[in-house]
Design brief:
Length: 871
């Protein structure tokens, strides 16, 4: 049986069983924020109450024909359901569980707040604020039980039914939890917005405040004080002190509104210092959620309590602040290409220091190997401009001369040894280092040793990628396909012959094997109705919690499913969404993968086995048809070039797919170190370690190993950097600085994505990477956290896709990216899936909005918007 009661900070308190408000409060308590104590009455208790009293048929019947446009019908349905709840008895076991939890609270029959918490509320896109009831100053078990029942009934208040109808929420799928918390005897209360809800400015916070309990603000019976603050400094920049004529106060039986004493009516509720302290709490909560928040607070005896926090809905777009793309070196040339395609966003501080340093060291080792006896990369090759990674391609005359002189010899070395170096040297060495650290008892390792392990894993990963993948496999793949295509088009192809692309598709590779593995798992689930039903009816948050915590979920065959899913993650869970190791992999966070699996279980998505079989058949048929008529040097050259291209086509995806082989372990080591820093007071959460610089982490690790129980508090640095990088992320980084950079004396811009200022009107131009034309609904995905938004038949629009995005290609009608070219991962997989692709647009994720109808022409490389968004 599912638990009826959970403690407020219970790890199992998630949206599915404690609702949006409850899940948020649990998260706040776990983060150490000042939240009044209490407990959750879970959705299981609501379901038991409804089931034991057989209320569901009557509820469904009451709301079956209601319309948001007919208030009288809504009120009738609501009154009918409220009467059902009022007359239904509370099951004994639920009453006993609530009674025990209430008795465990401090004090004799303490006053509590009993708040509704819906499973479809307090979400970034829909708040449902005020749709269900809250009861304040409730005393005694009997009153608490009655308040819980009234909260449950409020799920079916007329306004709640109408709101769900307006937003397309299935009325039969909703449920309700209840939060019971100690009541704060507030001297003052109000709301804090961690962004300006009027202007959208994220650097500003707005506080509303009134005397007494906050219900007067919620019910709009009082005009509160309003303060605007600079969020970074906590400085009050504007204050409007209102005439607060009424206030909500406690009474023996609940609350009531009374006239505010004359001495308080026009008096400021909060001092500047108090407002600054409250804003600092808000900044912590915003950092915890990674988005602007709407926070209810109370003040008692000079101390703040947080009553609830939810994302701000309908927040205006933030005015984009100006940003200067200043060259690190006057007269320099910089470009975003190659490995930087795997770093589409501003870098977190730890990757921007430790990660970029190791990348530059790997390039230096590559330069030393190719140009023996010289230090070719004496200066860092990768630099940061507004926290975005760029290549410094302003080579000196000496470097340019070395390139020209040595190009033939080291080009031959890179291409001729690429497969051997990857298969027999780099990949085995990488795997061995990962296996070595996996065998360690990480919990017992000193902090400096953990950091050493992180550096060693990342070092070997970059040698794997830069020296053998980028320095061999990728150029070999690019060149082999390009040379074969040139020869085929010039000397072989006739009018009705298949395109050159047909000859290099249908091969097995790591992303394709991962796709087939997930599809096979979905087919296994379909054959087991209990597992398939559970997957369809359960949120990915809940499923991920069960899988990661090893919980036996309530379904037959679940242990077998758990084992199969774990095996899939063990084989393919290291695929990266982003090279920045602050970003989780599927092994760390399987929710995006579960979203795709759920769609496949519903029969939505294509069969990768059939798709590969068809591509293989077309390839083999094309080879037979074309090669059969060739003779002499054309036949010999055709086969030689074809074998070269076909050998490297799957190797490219295998090599790219293994780039993140050590990422799950590397992240686990960093998060373990982050947990130690959290315990020592340096940061608020283990994940905050990614917002520290390498030298800071190194210094803190040393202090921990020397026995320090408390270290310097760096939380303010974490917040400031978070704010800075969020502000930078709204900008589109120029693909090159200046607009026409020179590489070895050549204009490099033609190989880069389009610049934002070049994209005007209702068309977006890019590179045609996979042929065909499709008109469909766009789905703009910023990262794996958005995977659940993707629906079959959508156009996948993203900054870039890596092998970890491959499952979405089975759902996509077409693909559009900001970054990439004809031989990037997006292009290769799009062609394997036979969907049109336009890459390297530079601005697709800025100009296109989810829900837009767009036409993608992968042949000409043009995306046409139904209307110009003007973004």
């Amino acid at each position: 049986m599912h638990e009826l009661i959970l403690q407020l900070a219970d790890r199992g308190a998630i949206l599915a069983n404690v609702g949006g408000k409850g899940a948020s409060l649990a998260r706040l308590v776990d983060a150490g924020l000042p939240v009044p104590g209490g407990f959750h009455v879970t959705t299981s208790a609501y379901a038991r109450f409804v089931a034991e009293n057989d209320l569901q048929p009557a509820i469904v019947e009451a709301v079956r024909a209601v319309s948001a446009a007919e208030p009288s019908g809504l009120e009738t349905a609501s009154r009918t359901i409220a009467d059902l709840f009022a007359r239904a008895p509370m099951p004994t076991d639920i009453a006993d569980a609530i009674g025990r939890a209430y008795a465990a609270l401090p004090g004799q029959e303490p006053p509590v707040a009993v708040r509704s918490s819906g499973t479809a509320e307090d979400l970034p896109e829909l708040s449902f604020a005020g749709q269900q009831e809250t009861f304040l100053n409730v005393h005694g078990v009997a009153a608490v039980l009655e308040a819980v029942k009234r909260c449950w009934a409020s799920l079916w208040a007329a306004r709640a039914i109408a709101y769900r109808a307006q937003h397309g929420v299935d009325q039969s799928s909703v449920s309700l939890a209840v939060v019971v918390q100690l009541l704060v005897p507030a001297d003052a209360a109000g709301v804090l917005f961690t962004a300006n809800p009027v202007s959208g400015m994220r650097a500003e916070a707005m506080v509303t405040a009134t005397w007494g309990l906050g219900e007067a603000i919620v019910s709009s019976t009082v005009t509160p004080d309003t303060l605007m603050l600079d969020k970074g400094s906590g400085r009050v920049v504007d204050r409007q002190t209102a005439d607060k004529q009424v206030m909500t106060v406690r009474t023996e039986s609940g609350t009531e509104e009374r006239s505010t004493p004359d001495s308080l009516r026009r008096a400021p509720v909060l001092s500047d210092a108090q407002a600054a302290n409250l804003t600092r709490l808000g900044a912590q909560i915003e950092a915890l959620y990674g988005m602007p928040m709407d926070i209810e607070w109370a003040l008692h005896n000079g101390s703040f309590a947080i009553l609830q926090a939810r994302p701000i809905t309908a927040l205006p777009p933030e005015p984009v602040p100006p940003i200067e793309w200043k060259l690190p070196k006057p007269g320099g040339s910089y470009a975003r290409a190659s490995i930087i395609e795997l770093l589409p966003e501003p870098l977190t501080p730890l990757f921007g220091t430790l990660g970029v340093r190791e990348i530059n060291l790997a390039y230096r080792r590559l330069g030393n190997a190719l140009f023996k006896g010289t230090s070719f990369f004496s200066e860092p090759l990768v630099v940061l401009i507004n926290d975005y990674a760029y290549y410094d391609i302003a080579f000196t005359p000496r470097q340019t001369l070395l390139l020209v002189v040595q190009m033939p010899s080291f080009g031959k070395f890179l291409l001729s040894t690429a497969e051997r170096r990857w298969k027999h040297e780099a990949r085995p060495k990488y795997a061995a280092v990962v296996a070595h650290w996996q065998a360690q008892n990480l919990d017992a390792l000193p902090s400096r040793e953990l950091l050493r392990g992180v550096r060693e894993i990342f070092t070997v990963a970059m040698d794997h990628y830069i020296y053998t993948v980028q320095g061999g496999i990728l150029p070999a793949a690019y060149m082999s396909e390009a040379v074969f295509t040139w020869f085929y088009e010039k000397f072989v192809r006739r009018g009705n012959d298949p395109p050159a692309l047909s000859f290099v598709l249908g091969f097995d590779s790591l992303p394709i094997r991962a796709d087939k593995s997930l599809y096979d798992l979905a087919q296994w689930c379909i054959a087991r109705p209990a597992v398939a039903g559970l997957l369809s009816a359960t949120s990915s948050d809940q499923l991920a919690a069960w899988l990661l915590d090893g919980v036996h979920a309530p379904a037959e065959d679940w242990p077998d499913f758990h084992a199969r899913f774990a095996e899939h993650l063990a084989r393919f869970g290291h695929a990266i969404y982003d090279l920045d190791f602050a970003k989780p992999t599927p092994a760390d966070d399987p929710r995006p993968l579960l979203e795709t699996l759920k769609l496949l279980v519903q029969g939505r998505g294509s069969d990768p086995h059939q798709r590969q079989h068809e591509a293989t058949f077309r390839r083999e048929q094309a080879v037979r048809m074309v090669a059969g008529r060739l003779r002499g040097w054309r036949r010999a050259t055709f086969h030689r070039l074809l074998n070269w291209a076909q050998r490297y086509a799957p190797l490219r995806e295998d090599a790219l797919g293994d780039t993140g082989l050590g990422w799950p372990l590397l992240r686990r080591m960093l998060l373990l170190l982050g947990a130690r820093l959290t315990s020592a007071g340096a940061i608020r959460r283990p994940e905050d370690i990614f917002w520290l610089a390498e030298d800071e982490v190194s210094q803190l690790a040393t202090e921990l190993d020397l026995g320090a129980s408390h270290v310097a508090d760096l939380t303010h640095f974490v917040h400031e950097r978070n704010v800075r990088i969020r502000a930078e992320s709204v900008h589109t980084p120029p693909p090159s600085l200046p607009p026409k950079p020179k590489f070895a004396g050549l204009d490099f811009s033609r190989w880069l994505p389009a610049r934002a200022e070049e994209q005007v009107g209702n068309t977006i131009k890019g590179l045609g990477a996979s042929p065909g034309t499709v008109t469909a609904t766009a789905r703009v995905l910023r990262g794996p956290e958005d995977f659940g938004q993707m629906q079959p038949g959508d156009v996948l629009v993203a900054a870039i896709t890596t092998p970890a995005w491959t499952p979405l290609f089975a759902l996509a009608a077409a693909v559009v990216t900001d970054v990439g070219g004809p031989l990037s991962h997006s292009s290769i997989v799009a062609r394997e899936y036979a969907v049109p692709a336009v890459l390297g647009t530079g601005v697709a994720t800025r100009r296109i909005r989810s829900g837009d109808r767009i036409t993608v022409d992968g042949t000409t490389g043009v995306v046409t918007l139904a209307t110009d968004s003007g973004a």
